[in-house]
Design brief:
single chain, 397 residues, alpha/beta, Rossmann fold, 3 domains, 7-stranded mixed sheet, 20 helices, 53% helix, 10% strand
Length: 397
């Protein structure tokens, strides 16, 4: 058995394509345990075996399951070449297959084999054995890479951007399309456009505008969640990060997944430096034509540049041209969708459907009367007011 472990140890040291997997804490701990067997020091061997188990249990009770996750999500030279336009060199393909075979053999290791090799005379922790054929598993993964992705995009579906890096949101908004009530037609436009993106058809950038609390942002996030299993990922940006979009597009170029760059509650002041950048991107500059990315923006205003009376009455003899330039940004979106504040009837319908979903059982006349009072206190009828009102009611039950 010790000869078998020694062979696995040497092969682990030679891993090149899946180097991130081989150098992970769990694999390093396993290597250190195998290495300790050479010295016939039971104290050191027990210490190293226990360190391996502790590292493994932080991720999974099964060594095979752990490896499946690490290998599937690994970002390496092979997967990048397969997803890009380059042909994968035969030497890299063979190396990847050889290393996957190695990991398959490691997934077959049993705790009895490892503890037997340790021969320390005391009971040691066990782990679950789930063997895998990683050559087969990885081939299946690659055939569906446009849905699964790799690297951080394989594990998460919503992200932010900071210091030149795309950062995963580990506790992202799980809102579902089924959670949203009303605005089915408006939401349908976003869904149809996102389907076009998924299927490689011409997809448009979208501006969702209208009254606050009407569900614009929730619609974008819900649609992203809806198609996460189809390979859609959302990257949320702040207004001041618009200038970073060309860099983000470069990072996403060649990625097999589809991306929504989402800017929430956007508006500009005149002479804002980000304004020209966004115009150029929406106009379809070369860097924006990657085919795997769209921009979805929400705003409370149809024309994104804030306009004052002084803008209209200024001394610029070409002020009409200036005003047209300011409002032209919204015209650069392929699709604009209005989310208008609901009337009283629609507001009550939303309240009743939310109440039914939350199992709130009070007479309809009382429900609508109290909902009406709540909306007046909140400054008007809106889906947000309906959601907040029914949340309050659900705590009273």
């Amino acid at each position: 058995m010790q000869n078998k472990l020694e062979n696995l140890y040497l092969r682990l040291k030679s891993v090149s394509v899946f180097e991130n997997v081989a150098s992970s804490y769990v694999m390093r701990a396993l290597s250190e345990f195998i290495e300790s067997l050479r010295y016939a020091d039971k104290y050191k061997t027990v210490e190293k075996y226990s360190s391996f188990i502790r590292e493994l249990f932080r991720h999974s009770p099964s060594l095979g399951d752990y490896l499946l996750c690490e290998i599937s999500e690994d970002e390496n030279v092979y997967v990048k070449a397969r997803c890009g336009s380059d042909t994968v060199p035969e030497c890299i393909r063979e190396c990847a297959e050889r290393e996957l075979t190695l990991f398959s053999e490691i997934s077959e290791l049993t705790p009895e084999e490892l503890t037997g090799a340790a021969d320390c005379g005391i009971p040691l922790p066990m782990f679950e054995v789930h063997p895998y054929n990683f050559v087969k598993e990885y081939a299946e993964r690659m055939s569906n890479i446009h849905r699964y992705g790799y690297g951080i995009f394989a594990r998460y579906n919503m992200f932010t951007y900071s210091d030149g890096k795309i950062i995963p949101l580990t506790s992202s908004d799980k809102i579902s399309v089924n959670d949203l009530i009303g605005y089915e037609e408006e939401r349908g436009e976003v869904i149809e456009n996102t389907l076009s993106l998924i299927h490689g058809k011409a997809a448009s950038n979208i501006l969702l505008y209208g009254d606050a609390g009407t569900g614009k942002s929730s619609t974008v996030k819900a649609v992203a969640n809806m198609f996460a299993d189809e390979g859609v990922r959302l990257i949320e940006l702040r207004r001041d990060q618009i200038i970073c979009i060309p860099d983000i597009l470069d990072k996403l170029h060649g990625n097999p997944l589809k991306f929504i760059l989402f800017i929430d509650d956007l508006s500009f002041t005149e002479n804002d430096g980000s304004l020209g950048t966004l115009k150029a991107i929406l106009e379809g500059s070369a860097s924006a034509r990657s085919g795997n990315t769209v921009i979805y923006v929400t705003s409370n205003r149809r024309h994104l540049v804030k306009e004052t009376f002084s803008d209209r009455a200024g001394d610029d003899i070409h002020r009409r041209d200036t005003m047209q330039e300011n409002i032209s940004l919204s015209e650069r979106f392929g699709i604009t969708i209005l989310f208008s504040r609901p009337d009283k009837k629609m507001y009550f319908e939303i309240v009743k459907k939310l109440a039914a979903k939350k199992n709130i059982r009070i007479p309809e006349t009382e429900l609508t009367a109290r909902a009406d009072v709540y909306a007046l206190k909140k400054g008007g009828y809106s889906p947000r007011a309906a959601e907040q009102f029914t949340n309050i009611l659900s705590t009273e039950i």
